[in-house]
Write a structure and sequence with these properties.
Elements: H1 2-24, H2 28-33, E1 40-51, E2 56-66, E3 69-79, E4 84-90, H3 91-114, E5 119-125, E6 131-137, E7 140-146, E8 155-157, H4 161-180
Antiparallel strand pairs: 1-2, 2-3, 3-4, 5-6, 6-7, 7-8
Helix pairs in contact: 3-4
Length: 182
């Protein structure tokens, strides 16, 4: 009887821990759109395509109106064999990414010239798990983005640094223009 009671208590403790972890992993976009009792309106604004090493990725600004509140997200998506991987980057995260990109670009130039290791990776990760960065392998510098935190096929390899920077600066410009026209 005592073991059964202890097992039940442990089960609920573990369940509580896992439910808290799931809640913490919820994205800013999902937090915003999961409100109940309000009308949600989605508007998309296409941006130039992101040049990849092989192919292209789509990019757009998604404006979401929830009741009387609005939020903007830069969405970068890549169609895979079975599904489409999408990163939804909140405005405040986009500003942090743009700052980090400057630092990463400077570091990449130093790293490519001074790389002693066989492999080097340098990246920035947002709260939502989006990653942007580069790696150097065999004296070759490759920029990449990881669109989603989990799953396979979530990493896209960019043509060059300018492709990375353009995607984010175009997104910021469009968000700024949309905010001015509210």
């Amino acid at each position: 009887m005592r073991n059964t009671f202890t097992s039940i208590i442990l089960f609920f403790l573990v369940l509580g821990v896992f439910s808290q972890e799931k809640k913490e992993e919820q994205s800013k976009m999902l937090d915003f759109v999961s409100q109940t009792g309000v009308i949600l309106k989605f508007e998309d604004y296409e941006l130039p395509k992101v040049k990849l090493s092989y192919g292209i990725a789509e990019s757009k600004i998604r404006k979401i109106t929830s009741g009387d509140r609005q939020q903007y997200f830069l969405q970068i998506s890549k169609k895979g064999e079975y599904d489409t991987k999408v990163a939804s980057i909140a405005y405040e995260d986009l500003l942090e990414i743009i700052k980090a990109l400057s630092t990463l670009e400077e570091a990449s130039q130093k790293d490519i010239n001074n790389a002693d290791s066989d492999y080097l990776e340098n990246k920035f990760i947002t709260d939502d798990g989006f990653q942007v960065g580069y790696y150097i392998s065999k004296d070759k510098l490759v920029w990449y983005m990881k669109l989603e935190r989990y799953g396979s096929g979530t990493t896209i390899f960019l043509k060059d640094y300018d492709s990375v920077k353009l995607a984010f600066t175009e997104g910021e410009s469009k968000m700024e223009a949309l905010k001015l026209n509210q």
